[in-house]
Design brief:
Elements: H1 7-13, H2 16-31, E1 43-48, H3 60-66, E2 70-74, E3 81-87, H4 107-124, E4 128-134, E5 138-145, H5 148-160, H6 175-185, E6 191-196, H7 205-217, E7 221-228, H8 230-234, E8 243-246, E9 253-256, H9 262-283, E10 286-291, H10 297-310
Parallel strand pairs: 3-4, 3-6, 6-7, 7-10
Antiparallel strand pairs: 1-2, 4-5, 8-9
Helix pairs in contact: 2-4, 4-5, 6-7, 7-9
Length: 311
């Protein structure tokens, strides 16, 4: 009899930590079928055993094949500090869901699940992780640490974000101001991983990238995950009929048939993407398109690639 796990039911009744482990387990299994073949999230390499060292890390199976003593070296010897930064403004609740849907998340759900999965991957690599949440202001800040109690605290804060959209609570975004503050509060050199839909400062990306440059100036590495709905936000792929579009942050409305402006809209979005890529290249920022219609492997793989470059 076939047996499958309904991840939507887990999302309703299971813990975020458990869900993150399921995502990471599936990802690790897939690594052995990818260009990362042979990668282990905990084991790094072998080195020769030195007399007097503890014997608990000796690879006895390898000794049986080679008759030489080798010690397993783990990533905890070269761990990383990582600061997760999540935009939780109202625009991140698009598309609005009446219930938690793991398979079809909105932008905020996607960012939370992706961040939780990164946390699980970091835990296995003995990396320290911190968390910043922001909308108009920074609403939560916890520096990177490496302990079970600390990780539980972050999981708790992330789980608070998984809720249905409240149309009466409109939260605007002050991305530039918040990133400047995060740059000042993150004292030790870290990998800063940002999840945002980049719908703030649409007319002038220079201010946003000045804030990102502030992070780079303070010796941090940056991965910018541009979270969006590729079908609806990027391609304006709606049916040929009139719609009423509502700004989730301001409540402003606009009535139109999206098909009438679709071609011009796609041109503008392509130009905007080119502008973002140009700025990221200029400031040496890793830019990743995080389409919520795709799986979380794009996020985990991007993190591993960046980590490999740093170490």
């Amino acid at each position: 009899m076939d047996f499958s796990i309904d991840r939507n039911r887990l999302a309703q009744f299971g813990s975020l930590e458990f869900l993150a482990r399921q995502i990471v387990e599936g990802f690790i299994t897939g690594l052995h079928k990818s260009p990362f073949h042979g990668f282990s999230v905990e084991f790094a390499e072998h080195r020769l055993y030195n007399t007097g060292e503890p014997i608990r890390h000796i690879d006895w199976k390898l000794y049986g094949r080679t008759e030489k003593l080798f010690v397993k070296r783990y990533e905890e010897e070269t761990n990383l500090r990582c600061q997760l930064v999540i935009d939780k403004s109202s625009s991140m609740c698009f598309p609005v869901r009446n219930k938690i849907d793991f398979e079809h998340p909105n932008k905020l759900f996607f960012s939370v699940y992706a961040a939780a999965s990164l946390m699980e991957l970091m835990r296995r690599q003995r990396d320290a992780v911190g968390l910043d949440l922001f909308d108009e202001t920074i609403t939560f800040h916890e520096p990177a640490k490496m302990s079970a109690v600390h990780n539980k605290l972050i999981y708790t804060e992330l789980e608070k974000l998984i809720d249905t959209y409240d149309k009466d609570q409109k939260k605007t975004t002050s991305t530039v101001q918040c990133l400047h503050q995060i740059a000042e509060m993150t004292h030790k050199r870290s990998l800063v991983v940002i999840f945002t839909d980049m719908l703030d400062n649409l007319d002038d990306h220079n201010k946003l990238f000045e804030a990102l440059e502030h992070l780079k100036y303070n010796k941090h590495e940056v991965i910018l995950f541009h979270v969006y709905d590729g079908q609806l936000e990027q391609n304006l792929d709606f049916e040929n009929r009139p719609y009423r579009f509502v700004d989730l942050e301001t409540g402003d409305t606009l009535k139109l048939n999206p098909v009438e402006i679709q071609e011009r809209y796609r041109q503008l979005m392509a130009q905007r993407k080119d502008d973002i890529l140009k700025h990221c290249y200029q400031y040496q920022i890793d830019y990743v398109e995080a389409d919520i219609n795709k799986d979380y492997n794009q996020v985990l793989t991007s993190y591993l690639i960046k980590r490999t470059k740093l170490y």
